[in-house]
Design goal:
Elements (H helix, E strand, L loop, with lengths): L1 H10 L2 H4 L6 H5 L12 H29 L13 H10 L4 H11 L3 H15 L3 H26 L3 H4 L15 H20 L9 H20 L3 H26 L3 H38 L4 H33 L15 H24 L1
Helix pairs in contact: 4-8, 4-10, 6-7, 7-15, 8-10, 8-12, 10-11, 11-14, 12-13, 13-14
């Protein structure tokens, strides 16, 4: 216990996390100012669990029926009708033509029948479009609600319009109930995304999204603890703005409504450029790297916050390049229309098996043609 206390004292050093001549005792005294407290962060875990429950209910009883009504099919249950083929599929992953011949002889099946079984088995292993639709529907719902609530919360706050107010009289900033709930909901949401990411559809930018969630959680937690929630709330509103049309575009793409998907993607592109490449660097990063220097005495944690904010901007640039690739592909493609670049990354065994099935089928066809 003494070691843990020593580590805690060393990590939460006043000199590191607070401006000069300010201690943790100053911002723990809530008699005159309602300061943000480190203990508040525990509520974020409870919010995360509650959001996971709400998400499950909405996906099962609201989003799934909507998706089915729009023509999407639920995922086929993972059942097998042949233990021999199932064992070979799971153990080897890649089933070659010679193995198909051997399995056909073992089961007294035709090779074509074995190939059909492999293709059906691969289809059962894939993530259904309905699952991706419900995931995007959940994120769309939350981002839309969070953005509207964030604007409602911050509309009468002076730091929304003049970022200098993020630093005036820092760290003696009182947190109101609406800002408290806004922060806890956002922090809980990113905790829930981090927990569920390993169970959701695997996408090409899985690691980038994971890093994004971790960096966001660190920023929210440290900014809350150090009473930097004003600049943190601005970061949240800016981030939620572009995510709303992005998830709407994905939902439209999944239900194969290309026209709506294109419109939503165009709105998303404009919103992204305005928020992530405009407001974020020129309002947030400019305020933290220039305005704060003129108002607040610097302290080591300031550089930690700025590093995390700059890390987010690097991710924005990476994602901007991905957006440009989607736009260029949509313009130059013979079949115009945007595609979801964050597509599923299927398991290697399934992809290889599908290629094998196609290869054995074509090989059988060519052999038949040569014989005839």
């Amino acid at each position: 216990m003494e070691i843990l206390k020593s580590i805690n004292t060393w990590f939460w050093n006043d000199y590191v996390w607070l401006p000069p001549n300010i201690t943790w005792e100053h911002i723990k005294d809530t008699r005159t100012v309602n300061y943000a407290q480190f203990s508040d962060l525990y509520y974020a875990f409870q919010v995360a669990l509650a959001l996971l429950v709400v998400r499950y209910i909405l996906e099962q009883f609201v989003f799934s029926p909507i998706g089915c009504y729009l023509g999407l099919k639920p995922k086929i249950p993972k059942k097998t009708d042949n233990k021999v083929l199932e064992k070979a599929f799971c153990e080897n992953g890649k089933i070659g033509y010679k193995q198909v011949q051997g399995l056909a002889k073992q089961l007294d099946w035709s090779e074509r029948r074995v190939e059909r079984w492999i293709r059906r088995r691969i289809s059962r292993g894939k993530v259904s479009t309905l699952s991706k639709f419900t995931e995007s529907a959940w994120r769309f719902t939350f981002y839309l609600c969070a953005f509207c609530y964030g604007l409602y919360t911050l509309w009468d706050k002076p730091w929304l319009w003049i970022t200098n107010y993020c630093w005036y009289d820092y760290p003696h900033h009182s947190v109101t109930n609406d800002v408290w709930w806004y922060y806890m909901l956002e922090l809980g949401f990113y905790w829930s995304l981090t927990m569920s990411q390993f169970m959701d559809t695997k996408r090409k930018d899985f690691m980038q999204m994971f890093v994004h969630h971790i960096v966001t959680i660190m920023l929210l937690s440290f900014s809350w603890t150090s009473n930097l929630f004003r600049i943190g709330s601005l970061v949240l509103v800016i981030h939620d703005f572009a995510d709303v049309p992005l998830e709407a575009a994905k939902m439209a793409k999944y239900v194969e409504n290309q026209r709506v998907a294109d419109i939503c993607f165009a709105v998303f592109t404009v919103a992204w450029i305005i928020s992530r490449l405009g407001l974020y660097p020129y309002k947030i990063i400019y305020s933290t790297m220039y305005e704060a220097l003129l108002i607040v005495p610097m302290f080591p944690a300031y550089y930690v916050f700025n590093s995390l904010l700059c890390a987010l901007q690097i991710l924005h640039i990476v994602w901007t390049w991905m957006i440009v690739k989607i736009a260029l592909r949509a313009i130059s493609s013979k079949n115009p229309g945007v595609k979801d670049l964050r597509s599923d990354s299927e398991q290697g065994s399934s992809s290889e098996s599908e290629d094998t099935a196609k290869g054995t089928s074509s090989q059988e066809n060519s052999t038949t043609q040569r014989t005839s």
